[in-house]
Amino acid sequence: MNRRKAIALPLGVIGLALLLVAALPSQTRRAAAQEDWFTSEPEEIQVTSRAQELGGLPVGEVLLGESVVTRIRSAAGGKTAPQRAETAAARLSGVLRAGSPAPEEFRVAQMNGQYVVAVRDELIVTADTYHAQVNGTTPVKLATQWRDNLVQAYRRELDRPIGKICPIVSVGKGTRLGLAHITGPRSQVHKAQFVGQLETTFQKSVRIRIFVPIKAQDGVDRVPQVNVNAYADLKM
Amino acid sequence: MSRRRQLAAALVAALALGTAGARAAKIDLGSIGDAVKIMGIGFAVKTFGGQINQAINTVLMQNNIERHGATKVVPILSVGQGAYIGAAQVTGPENEVAQVQAVVQGEVTASGGQVRFNALVPVDSINPFQSLPKPKFKGVGITAIIDFNV
After folding, report:
1. What phi and psi values does residue B86 have, to the nearest 5 degrees?
2. Statement: residue B25 has pLDDT above 50
3. Does residue B138 belong to any structural domain of this protein?
């Protein structure tokens, strides 16, 4: 137990150090107005809604990341437009949290005689006749347009580079050796659970430590497009 | 020039050439340790980088680990020391990896040296201060750290 505590404390320090240093270059980025290298993007895709006014009328917008994907202009079912947007955002957020769907799983479907945007079998938003008229189109075309907006924003979010901290484990032995900060597209980074370390030598005088972002501790199933850009190790 | 001076100059030249030849011969024999000792890490990485890169990729292949993108071995420049302190294998899109010249390392120690934190930034110059704080290779990461024990 004491041994565990003795290891846990320095690992905590490593984590803090990594987080601190990860924050430093983003300050530099703000100063230089550049995209940061140590990104502080959250691992989960953010789905939000907001109330806006359009031509003096309240509307509700659903946002995926920073993109508006749907604009609800009318009240229905006892809910105001912003409340309907809030419901749609909650549905979408729930679907994304339940398991990363493929972009192809965002579809236009018919439910209760109305055209809707759905992910797998989950209703996200209904493209009713009123909204179709306001947009000068048909319900099916509006649902298709909303679906396309959603897919486009979703793909953008999947490709957005993010970073996270993973434990470094010795491949084959499972011994924890430290922590690593990994970066890559969001769609891949969330799959990486560990950074495996392999060791080899070259001409006796060269020691090589190879870092491999992996999905599970007991295998070397590499996560593509994900790389290490910082690491912290513990003197054992 | 007197005959004696000509002879002395010829002897010095022969000695210099002979020493350089001996050094080159020793490096040609393939010892990276000697290359590091005599010519420094920068030279050793330039000379043996390809072989080290190949060795790393072979180890990955032997462990059935897929490789994605291009790889290259470049020297690590320490921000604190302002010198080469090792080498790193970088991985990423071919066009970006081709531009990487070095990896700049910032190092922080904590808990009385028990914990060592290293941040690694691939840069397109061997002068770290030319590239920082504007690292531009977002798709390039570090796959391996190479330490020279000489």
Report:
1. 170, -160
2. no
3. yes
Segments forming the whole domain that contains residue A15:
2-40+161-233
Whether residue A76 lies within 8 A of chain B, CB to CB, comes out as no
Closest-CA distance of chain A to residue B133, Å? 7
In whole angstroms, give the CA distance from residue A124 to residue A82.
15
Residues making up chain A, counted from first to last: 236
Residues in chain B, overall count? 150
Query: Does B19 reside within a domain?
Result: no
pTM: 0.68
**Among A residues 194-223, those touching chain B with beta carbons less than 8 Å apart:** 198, 200, 202-212, 220, 222
Same domain, A68 and A152: yes
pLDDT in tens, A32-44: 333 444 555 567 8
Rounded mean pLDDT of A147-173? 88
Residue ending a domain, among A159, A174, A193, is: A159
The pLDDT of residue A83 is 95
CA distance A42 to chain B (A): 17
What is the per-residue pLDDT for A55? 85
pLDDT of residue A116: 96
Q: Is A65 left (phi over 0), alpha (psi -120 to 50) or beta?
A: left
Dist. CA B42–CA B124, nearest whole Å: 15
Expressed as residue numbers, the domain containing B109 is 31-146
Token pair 């003197």 is found at: A235
Number of domains, chain B = 1
